[in-house]
Design brief:
The chain is mostly helical. The protein is built from eight helices and no strands. The chain has two domains: about 110 residues, no CATH class; about 45 residues. Helix 3 crosses helix 6 and helix 7 runs antiparallel to helix 8. The chain is globular.
């Protein structure tokens, strides 16, 4: 196991590669339409493998890496506790059972896609997922108090992102790249003082 800083020794950690695999399988199976809320609740509040601040930092890194955010996060957490075998176990947990479920759902959807109830159910799930993501964002705002830029600037950057994507309909990649570079430069400048 990788040595952790002393303040992390008292916190619970995954007990084995199997624990990582099972934990991330259960996370993946709960995450229909978005897993941010589920991952935050499980890893920070229930399992306590990460603090809120660590979760926000790890999630930020996971978002800028190519690929699905939660898969990136599972790799980072698995590696944190068990190195490469941990990263692979967490990744396998994230992908194995959900892949089978998605393939089965695709077969069922092909049979019932024309049914109006199916379309309504999918729209309803989308609304629930959006609400979960918004609630998790509000819950994690407290962690931004410790960010070098401070809460007001972080909120201003989030609002600028929302304005660019939702109101001005700018491409998400350009908005995130532009605002991400601005935020990184501002943070670097603040930390350099």
């Amino acid at each position: 196991m990788i040595a952790l800083p002393p303040e992390q020794d008292a916190r619970p950690t995954p007990q084995s590669l199997t624990d990582l695999f099972v934990s991330f399988t259960l996370l993946a199976l709960q995450g229909f339409g978005g897993v941010l809320a589920v991952v935050q609740r499980e890893l920070v509040e229930k399992k306590r493998w990460l603090t809120r601040e660590e979760f926000v930092e790890e999630w930020a890194v996971a978002q800028i890496m190519p690929g699905p955010n939660v898969v990136n996060l599972s790799l980072m957490i698995g590696h944190r506790y068990f190195g490469l075998p941990g990263a692979l176990a967490a990744l396998a947990g994230m992908l194995t059972v959900p892949l089978v479920v998605v393939l089965l759902l695709a077969l069922v959807y092909a049979q019932f896609a024309h049914h109006p109830g199916v379309a309504g159910a999918l729209r309803g799930m989308g609304a629930v997922a959006a609400g979960l993501i918004a609630a998790t964002g509000l819950k994690l705002m407290g962690a931004l108090k410790l960010h070098p830029l401070g809460l007001p600037i972080c909120i201003a950057l989030a609002m600028a992102c929302f304005t660019g994507v939702a109101l001005l309909r700018l491409p998400l990649a350009y908005v995130l790249l532009g605002l991400g570079l601005v935020a990184c430069a501002m943070t670097y400048r603040k930390l350099a003082r």
